[in-house]
# Entry
Amino acid sequence: MHPDIDAWQPWHPATFTARMPGADFPWYVAGGWAIDLFVGTQTREHEDLEVAVASSFFETMPPRFPELDFWVPLGEQKLGRMTAETLGGESHQTWAYDRAAQAWRFDVFREPHDGDIWICRRDESIRRPYEEIVSYTDEGIPYLNPEVALLFKAKAARDKDRADLATAWPRMSPEQRDWLRSAVEKVHPGHEWASLPG
# Structure
């Protein structure tokens, strides 16, 4: 059976984190939830939960969730079951489907890296140590720092992405703002976010 592509009932980041004890490899909450974890409160509804993992460690993830099936988005609203072939395709995403609830729980981004160095999938020349781009909440939930999360959001710049920018920007350090402007200009030349004031 092919699951309903819109049947999302995402877990809270804390629920996901509770299933990751002993995971001694780079992983973190990404997307809109990363912004809310950064500011310390939920500022909007989230239709999904995006987490990222250094790609070479992805194989350790599915066994942690035996009640879930993993699918790979194939474009044009299509999904394929996780296989060596679909994992080797162009998609960096892997959706986790809860068979009992008949709902998607989270989306795993398989991210390029070189050991402890994160590599931006949009421009491989952009690289930073994981220790510089991942922070933790008081509850121990790892999240992608806002300047990097917003770099990925700049491509679509949807209403929710603009809302996340407005939420994070006042709380970001000058260094984080500078990095975001520079990275956006490199990945998306001429983008309005590359000339944000402040």
